[in-house]
C-alpha cells in the first residue's frame, strides 16, 4: 500500500485531536467531580444516578414535611400542657369549694377564679401555628372555640341568649303545665340564699325574659311540652365550632405511605358544647371526659352554692383531666414516631447519596493517572505531527 503525505497528515492530526478530546473529557470530569456528566457518558449509569436523585429529592420533601409536622405537634403539646395546668388549678379550687367549711363569699371568689380559668382554657385551645388553628380538626381558618352559654335541663331544645354574669337557676311552674300555654305561666329564679324572683311567660309565648339582656327560648312543640317543676340552669360554656371527624384532619406524609395527623380535634380532646352548625352536632355533651363542659358545670354548681352538686363534680373533673393526660401521651407517641421517621429517611438519603456517588463520581487518583498517561500521549503525538510536517524534499534526498 502506498503511503501518501495526505495519509500521514490525516493520521497524525487525528492522533493529536483524539488525545486532545480525551484530555478535554478529563478536564471536564476534574471540574465537575463527576465521571458521568451526560447520558452519552454512560447511559445505564446515568439512568441509575437519576433514580437515586429522585429518591433523594423525595426524601428531602419527607424531611421538610417532618419538620412541619413536628412544629405542629410541639405547638399542640405546649397548648395541651397549658390546659392541663389550668385544669389542675381548677381541680384544686373545686376541692376547696367542696370543703363543707367554705363560706358563701369564698364560693363566690372561687367561682370568679374559675371563670378566669375558663377564659385561659379557651385561649390555649385557640392557639395557632403560622396562622392555622391547631385544634379545629380540618377547620384551620377560624378559632375553634368561642364563649357562650349553655342550658342544662332534662327537656331538650331549650336555648338561651345574652351574656349572664352569673349562673341562673330557673324553676318551672309545678303541675301539668304545658308550654306553649293559653295562659300566662310563672317561672321562678332561685337565688343562692334560697329566695326566689318570679318572671312571667306570656300566654302562647315561648320566649322568657330573665332581665339583664338574658332570655330563654322554649321549644314550640306539638303537642306542647310538659313542664312540672323542671329545673333549668343557665351557665357559662365554651362552644366548639370545629370539625369532629377524626378522619378529616390535617395529615402530612412523613414517609412513603405514612401519614402523620398533625392537627387536633378539640371537641374530642377538651370537649366543649358543640355548635349546632358544626359537623356531628348531636355528639353527647354529658360525657364526664368533656373537660370544658365539666368546668362549666362546676362553675354553675359553685355559683349556685349547691354543695351536693359541687361534690358530685369531683369525679368528672378527675376523669376530664385523665383524658387530657391521655392525649398528652398520644402526642408524645406521635413525636417519637416523627423522630424515628426522620432518622430512617436521613439514613435512606445517606445510602442513596453513597450509591449515586459510586455510580457517577470520579476517582481522583484514577483521573490523575489517566491525565498523566494522556499527557505523554499528547506530547508524543504532537512531536510526531511536528516532525512529519517539517519534512521536505531535501529530507528525502
Query: Average pLDDT across residues?
Result: 83
Give me the count of strands. 15
Rounded to the nearest angstrom, the distance between the terminal CA atoms is: 22 Å
Helix fraction bin: 40-55%
Morphology call? elongated
Helical stretch tally: 9
Q: How many domain units?
A: 2
Major beta sheet summary:
6 strands, mixed
Poorly predicted spans: none
**Coarse structural class:** alpha+beta
CATH fold group of the largest domain: f41 fragment of flagellin, N-terminal domain
Strand content: 15-25%
Task: Describe what you observe in this structure.
There is one protein chain. With 397 residues, the protein is an alpha+beta fold. The protein folds into two domains: 34-151 and 234-361, Up-down Bundle (f41 fragment of flagellin, N-terminal domain), CATH 1.20.1330.10; 154-229, no CATH class. The protein is 52% helix and 17% strand. It is built from nine helices and 15 strands. The strands form five sheets. Strands 3, 5, 7, 8, 12 and 15 form a six-stranded mixed beta sheet that branches. Strand 1 and strand 2 (132-133) form a beta hairpin. Helix 1 (5-32) packs antiparallel against helix 8, helix 2 (43-98) runs antiparallel to helix 3 (104-125) and helix 2 packs antiparallel against helix 7 (314-360). The chain is elongated, with a radius of gyration of 40 Å.
